[in-house]
Amino acid sequence: DGMGNLRVTKKGIRLEGISEFLLPLYVKEIHSRKDSPLVLQSDRNVTVNARNHMGQLTGQLTIGADAVEAQCKRFEVRASEGGKVLFSADEDEIVIGADRLKVTGTEGAVFGHSVETPHIRAEPSQDLKLESPTRSLVMEAPRGVQVSAAAGDLKATCRKELHLQSTEGEV
């Protein structure tokens, strides 16, 4: 019925206890007992490969000492309840699907190119600061840009000249 920790059953092979594989392991499914976690361990990294019917590599997840890397056409992180996509990335775009994106770093968020959003706000009791330390700050919209401070002052500062321009109306 098997050898050592390895048992042959009607449902497949049952491995009990800690075992070491010296060469690659190919299986259709691996799962642990309902009351025990599944532990995969390596002194370098753990790599999981997915292949198509022709044996070609279609996806790879590598968990190493310094990083977790995924190589695939599309990477997704889903919520445990409801399965909503919280984060996805492919070659063309990255989507953050959470209801709110919060950047907590002291330097804020830095964007190399344009940003498009219907709403920017600061945390309650915090100032909102839009800054371009070495270039211009431009806000454009086909139907207008609205800047308002519902409970405080609105302040615009610059080192040289402040320009407010209207092409068809008044300032």
Automatic annotation (TrEMBL):
InterPro entries given in the database record: Sarcoglycan, Sarcoglycan_gamma/delta/zeta
Protein topology in the membrane: Single-pass type II membrane protein
Record key words, sorted: Cell membrane, Cytoplasm, Cytoskeleton, Disulfide bond, Glycoprotein, Membrane, Signal-anchor, Transmembrane, Transmembrane helix
One GO term describing the cellular component: sarcoglycan complex
Pfam families in the cross-refs: Sarcoglycan_1 (PF04790)
GO BP, one annotated term: heart contraction
Family membership: Belongs to the sarcoglycan beta/delta/gamma/zeta family.
Protein name: SGCZ protein
